[in-house]
Amino acid sequence: MQINKWIIGLITIEIILHLCEIAFDVMQHMHFYGFAFLMDNLARAVKIAKELQYRQETNQMELYKPYDYQIKFHNSNATQRLLMAGNRVGKSFCGAMEMAFHCTGLYPEWWTGRKFNRPVRCWAGGVSNETTRDVCQKELVGQPDDPSARGKGSIPLNLIGDTVRKAGVPNALNSLVVKHKTGGYSRIGFKAYEMGKEKWMGESLDVIWLDEEPPQSIYSQALTRTADKGGIVYMTFTPEQGMTETVAQFVNNLKDSQDLIQATWDDAPHMTKSVRDQILQALPPHERKMREKGIPQLGSGLVFPVAEEDIVCDPFDIPDYYPRICGIDFGWDHPTACAWLAWDRDSDIVYVYDSYSMRQETVPVHASAIKSRNRWIPVIYPMDGRQADKGSGKSLAMQYREEGVNLLKEHFTNPPQQGMKEGTGGISVEAGVMEMLTRFQTKRLKIFKNQNKLMEEIRMYHRKDGKIIPMNDDVISAMRYGVMSLRKARVKNTEPIQIESDSEFNLF
Fold first, then answer.
1. CB 9 within 8 Å of CB 65
2. What is the pLDDT of residues 365-382, one digit of tens each?
């Protein structure tokens, strides 16, 4: 709770002065009034103090003195806003104050952000009905399970009108009305993500507040609900799910209609060192930056949280001077997959222009498909291609070479560090994933629109508890081998010959 210390100071002084007056009066008249006089006046002082305290608690709006980051948030005119902050810095209270100002029309003098000069229709939502009650409702109205706390949220008590209870959820509100300065009434409805996107349809709204990160489907519905009125959608959360698609569009691809405000413990004066230390000691190390600074961590969520329109491109004829390479990922129960890449060295853009995926087929079948896409293109393969087949005793790599596939002599490794020998780069998946993510984010890795299988995999490729889930990632793996082997890509020149050694060609 944020309270104007200056006002509190004045109130405290008023009480102290009154008590001093009483004491002086008692000394002057003790012989006259006696003990009864003293008790009566002390009771009056206590009553005054309680009344002042009650007025404070039931009019947070009047006493609201926002921090700098909160002022920045309120004064943004963007129709989509994200307040991404560490824990306990006051982000939910900030979101509640924003809604209180819009619903009442009682904007402070410092306010330069969006204003409504009429009553508004609003929604406030959280993950579940219970969390919506315990956060949104509490910050707007007061502690849900305490009737005496009504009006101790961001909306002043005297402006709270009728309320409607939510069936099946103890102490939860379905909606309430708020008196607007024009004499009309604004309305706030309480929603939950768990209700499904269907419950987020239908109404045309002015303001939607989403506390905690919503699923993309819910966020899309929120934008739709406010579109015709030119309304606003704002979110307040700590990025616990990592770099999701929702977070990524504000962090990596901010549009003119969007604004990102970030806040850390350093931006909240009430977060003292002792409080910080107490919280940090209770947190696992990998969560500390996220909780303290509001920085998305590699938690759960999409591996490539990038808008699809920034990934795909229209197919075009690949120029002959673009070096090319093919990555292959072997499989049986899961598909054997290939991805063909072309590299525009001038702009450093890599294009994935073709792919292949087939399960439970033999080497000759896969080899035929590969050779049909230009036999001269070198093929990079993973380390398991060196394993010998139990039946023939031949490795997979040898079998593909016998079928005429232009496999490189050595299996895949990441690029070596500068000054190190080829083959010393290791086979880390994370290194390749981060390189692809960086290229996606900087628009230096593009996928032809007709590569449906690869795009399906990208949409499903995700982390859980920081770890990549290795499912439905066959073409992605093939693409990763290719991206991390651009140093081995080659340009079409003469009729290719079987590559005997990686060192036999050095294009650059």
1. no
2. 999 999 999 999 999 999
Closest among 267, 213, 243 to 72, alpha carbons compared: 267
Structure tokens at 154: 């961001």
- Using the predicted structure, report yes or no on whether residue 212 has a pLDDT greater than 60: yes
Q: Is 212 marked active-site?
A: yes
Pairing type for strands 336-344 and 80-85 reads unpaired
Q: Spell out the long-range contacts of 277-286 with Cβ–Cβ below 8 A and sequence spacing 24 or more.
A: 279/87, 279/88, 286/466
Pairing mode of beta strands 462-464, 301-302: antiparallel
Q: Is 319 exposed, middle or buried (0-12, 13-18, 19+ CB in 10 A)?
A: exposed
Residue 499, pLDDT score:
42
Element (H, E) at 141: helix 138-141
Q: Which residues, in sequence order, are CB contacts of 249 under 8 Å at separation 6+? A: 255, 258, 307
Q: Which helix (H) or strand (E) holds 350?
A: strand 349-358
Greater model confidence, 467 or 158: 158
Torsions phi, psi for 187 (to 5 deg): -130, 135
Measured distance CA(289)–CA(296) in Å, rounded: 8
Distance separating alpha carbons of residues 60 and 81, to the nearest angstrom? 23
The overall pTM is greater than 0.90: no
Bridge partners, residue 185, by sequence: 179
CA–CA dist 325, 270 (Å, integer): 56
- Give the Cα separation of 368 and 444 in Å (integer): 31
Using DSSP's 3-state secondary structure scheme, residue 355 falls into strand
Say which of 139, 212, 292, 410 is annotated catalytic.
212
